[in-house]
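hey team, just a heads up i'm posting the complex here instead of the shared drive bc the drive is being weird again. everything in one block, sequence lines first with there labels, then the predicted structure for the whole assembly after. its two chains so it's a bit long, scroll down
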Amino acid sequence: MSVDKDTVRRIAKLARLAVPEERLEPMAGELNGIFKWVEMLGEAQVDGVPALTSVVAQKLKWRKDEVTDGGNADALMGNAPGGEDHFFTVPKVVE
Amino acid sequence: MADLTSNPTAMTLAEARDALKAKAISSRELTGAFIQAIEAGRGLNAFITETADVALLMAGESDKRIAEGKAGALEGLPLAIKDLFCTKGTRTTAASKILGNFIPPYESTVTQNLWNAGAVMLGKTNLDEFAMGSSNETSAFGPVFNPWRSRGSNQNLVPGGSSGGSSSAVAADLCLAATGTDTGGSIRQPAAVTGTVGLKPTYGRCSRWGIVAFASSLDQAGPMTKTVRDAAILLTSMASIDPKDSTSVETSVPDYESFLTGGVKGLKVGIPKEYRIDGIPADVAALWDKAADWLKAQGAEIVEVSLPHTKYALPTYYIVAPAEASSNLARYDGVRFGHRAANPHDITDLYERSRGEGFGAEVQRRILIGTYVLSAGYYDAYYSRAQKLRTLIKRDFDQAFEKCDVLLTPSTPGPAFGVGAKTSDPLEMYLQDVFTVTVNLAGLPGISVPGGLTESGLPLGLQLIGKAFDEGTLLRAAQSVETAADFKAKPAKWWTA
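-- predicted structure starts here --
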């Protein structure tokens, strides 16, 4: 299966990544090179093999559902590229 | 010891620890020597952010604690930190434009463990952007140069990647030791091509909390050092059981240095036959054979083992890692932190342009691969199949470890290559990790130890792979290789011109 320019445009949209029009074609070529190589996985026998979910035999840890940190809105806003008071600002979303 | 302290930056971590304990040198003196070395070594571009002021403050505090008899395990020892570990109040970039001005309001667990043990931070080292690369050339802050050059050549070589700033800094004596992270080989491969030691611990040994995430089921932090003993010392302080990382394993942390006795007599060392790949350079293969002889001469038993799914490891990795990366990197949206595009006309435009402007070419490529393999209609063919292969790759190791205690392989398919030599074809770069990536997929510990020099005078590494949470045996075997290799070569200091 081969990736074309339109496919790159579609997955770039899914990834919310602006890829300039002139980069779509070269990117398709690069991805095809990689996917062609990955196709060798198709020859491997995987029937009845379970998918790996964890490399270490340990139950995922649980913790109490309680607040352990907080009250640091100033620190959290410190890196915001757009922010007013304790709110992150974005372009208008709802008309 | 007077001999050692006259050239303090050349000391090992263990030697510096002992010199500080014996009060032959103060932490401020030692730290000052490294600050000078870092300034003189700026041509290597190993650091993104130097923190000389912080270092001297920390060193002063250490000297006080040493005087009061309250020294920690790493008291007063100056280290370099890969710029993927969040450091409170100190810019943390992941070598990406998208995090170029990010100042974390919190400290990663691993670095907090180091500071709690008394270590001193010299600065944040360069890396491939978001740790995606094997040559440190994808950094938004420019490539790092390897202190090593081929004999008689002045061509700049790469220091490996992604922990290339750390490997370069350790090899050039700009720090006693450094932290790295390893998702597909990013500690072991740069260590191998710079003549240094790099250890990737078992998945879950070091907390991932506060480390900028790349591929969460593969990422693991570890030490990059001058000797195997130093790796044992540093790992003992880096590792912990962390309630803030749900994959941190509830196994107490031993004193890894205490395992470095007894040698390898009776140890079974497996040689995986599938690692003898076509086109492996003669000196890499010869060193591998020689290392097996070294271990045999010290009383180890060499056994051939088979890891039949080895050839599928790298393509499996290039599905799993980008899939996880595309999810992890969704958080960079120009809203809460990081780069934000100017004058967005709507929210989608804000996301798309912030990400398009902020991420470099290799990161974009991997986000697109990851998005594609997880997208409707392709998930089963790619991602699901890759996760099944991961089970088979792990099973190979489980079966091999029924016949042996550790595995011995080359670390890389060759020595350091020229800057720009492999940047035109992503696949050629990916093949750098052919011997290291299997270990991440199976969650095992692996270490690269300097083995010798090529004919042109460049370092080559040997990799040992251990059973899960058996870093002790791994380090002991690694020290036997180190002793036999007797690697004493140092690069000529061309960068201090």
